[in-house]
Design a protein that fits this description.
Elements: E1 2-8, H1 12-23, E2 28-32, H2 39-44, H3 46-64, H4 80-104, E3 107-111, E4 113-116, E5 121-125, E6 131-141, E7 145-147, E8 160-161, H5 163-166, E9 175-179, H6 183-194, E10 198-203, H7 214-227, E11 230-233, E12 235-243, E13 246-253, E14 260-264, E15 266-269, E16 273-275, E17 308-310, H8 321-335, E18 349-351, E19 356-361, H9 364-369, E20 374-380, H10 385-389, E21 396-402, E22 407-415, H11 418-430, H12 435-439, H13 450-459
Parallel strand pairs: 1-2, 1-6, 2-3, 6-17, 8-15, 9-10, 9-15, 10-11
Antiparallel strand pairs: 4-5, 5-6, 7-16, 12-13, 13-14, 18-19, 19-22, 20-21, 21-22
Helix pairs in contact: 1-8, 3-4, 3-6
């Protein structure tokens, strides 16, 4: 078979690249070895975790929030098998939907593991061992990432789990230790805390979510502690001992000091992810990974080999599904002879805990380090009327504007539903908006989004509702 484009990897970057390429008339094939399209995100990442986050939030709200609102429930209980089933149902429906989109856009979906076998050639090995070779003018590497292992600790996906195992625990653990205070660890840790587990997070650094704005990180941790999550910051896990009645987790201060042991029923290892480049045949076309294992590109998603592009987690930049989608679209456009561009300054990041954390653009620490003069506006959800009526007053909005350009360069939020609200900021930043532009834009009352407007007013010193 001969193609204009063959995509190796069927995650959000790969399948969106395939859809756009099909729309633009390119003869396209997508190769995926998992047996299902959607990649980590749809199968064992973003989508199933959100299904459990949503369901567990309902469960906790029914127990703790509803009574204060005058809604009494008797006989409340957890049906974990059903909760896991509805998660799988959501995943199954969406993976079938992606397959439909391939057919709709005349993309050939080829099941098997793909590897580059020289210029213009992709070899595919099926589950039965059968091989076929695809001839193509262009190749897109979209193989994503995999969980980072913790040296010396074997993951069995039963008691010591990665994010994959944490999505399918057969019972709620009495005690769960989460290794790593990043997005994945905090999201999945919050799921099992709401369902009844005692959760302790062990983090090597002295703050949680180290890449987000420090003020938001501090507020976020304070909220999680109030909810019952325990933290061991500035500590590292040095070993896990399996015992008949549970696990013994050895930790010690990152900067040196006395070791301690924590008890656990389940340990979730969530120290990050690494690019997946095994057996890709990169050497056949002279592509080399960088020191961290990522496949570099020239700034326009082209690798060092002619006709080969790279997108998503397997290359540099944020490991986010929507970043991969944008890159996939840009590559398809480029190959078809149209514009192809990704604005990396406007890639939102969301932590889907309750409350959520959402951010886009630069943090206050980054602006200080770069010597950029800026102004800040803040607004607490405690002063927002909708937040008060909804009993969702934790959190704040923080707007950063560059003085020289009067452009918004960063917005950081923690609060209920801020993952949906960040889209307003992304649009504003794409159009080069100032804080005043948002401050003078009418927002519906009462809504949570008014907090954004009030924070924007605060940049110029005229917050009105606090």
């Amino acid at each position: 078979m001969s193609y204009d484009l063959v995509i190796i990897g069927g995650g959000p970057g790969g399948y969106n690249c395939a859809i756009r390429a099909g729309q633009l008339g390119l003869k396209t094939a997508i190769v995926e070895g998992r047996g299902k399209l959607g990649g980590t995100c749809l199968n064992v990442g973003c989508i199933p975790s959100k299904a459990l986050l949503h369901a567990s939030e309902y469960y906790e709200a029914a127990a703790k929030t509803f009574p204060a609102m005058g809604v009494k429930i008797s006989g409340l209980s957890l049906d974990l098998p059903q909760m896991l089933k509805q998660k799988e149902d959501a995943v199954d429906g969406l993976t079938k939907g992606v397959e439909f989109l391939m057919r709709k856009n005349k993309v050939d979906y080829i099941k098997g593991f793909g590897r580059i076998a020289g210029a213009g050639r992709v070899e595919v090995v099926g589950a039965d061992g059968a091989k076929q070779t695809l001839e193509t003018k262009n190749i897109v590497i979209a193989t994503g990432s995999e969980p980072m292992p913790l040296p010396g600790i074997e993951i069995d996906e039963q008691r010591i789990v990665s994010s994959t195992g944490a999505l399918s625990l057969k019972q709620v653990p009495g005690k769960m230790i989460v290794v790593g205070a990043g997005v994945i660890g905090l999201e999945l840790g919050s799921v099992w805390r709401r369902l009844g587990a005692e959760v302790t997070v062990v983090e090597f650094l002295d703050k949680i979510t180290p890449t987000i704005d420090a003020e938001i990180s501090t507020a976020f941790q304070r909220i999680l502690k109030k909810q019952g999550v325990k933290f061991e910051l500035g500590h590292k896990v040095t070993g896990v001992e399996r015992q008949a009645g549970g696990l013994k987790v050895a930790i010690e201060p990152a900067k040196g000091g006395a070791a301690r042991t924590l008890d656990a029923d389940v340990v979730l290892v969530a120290i990050g992810r690494r690019p997946f480049t095994q057996n890709l045949g990169l050497e056949s076309v002279g592509i080399k990974t960088d020191a961290r294992g990522f496949i570099p590109h020239d700034g326009h998603l082209k690798t060092s080999a002619a006709g080969i592009y790279v997108i998503g987690d397997v290359t540099t930049g944020a490991m986010l599904a929507h970043k991969a989608e944008e890159e996939g679209i840009a590559v398809a456009q480029t190959i078809a002879g149209f514009w192809g561009h990704v604005n990396y300054d406007v890639i939102p990041n969301v932590i889907y805990t309750d409350p959520e954390v959402a951010a886009v653009g630069r943090t206050e620490e980054e602006l200080k380090a770069a010597g950029v003069e800026y102004k800040v506006g803040k607004f607490q959800f405690m002063a927002n009327s909708r937040a008060r009526t909804n009993h969702e007053t934790d959190g704040l909005v923080k707007v950063l504007e560059e003085v020289a350009t009067k452009k918004i360069v960063g917005v950081h939020m923690v609060g209920a539903g801020v993952g949906e609200m960040i889209g307003e900021i992304c649009v504003a930043m794409e159009f080069g908006a100032s804080a005043e532009d948002i401050a003078r834009t009418c927002h519906a009352h009462p809504t949570m989004s008014e907090a954004i407007r009030e924070a924007a007013k605060g940049v110029d010193g005229w917050t009105m509702q606090a």
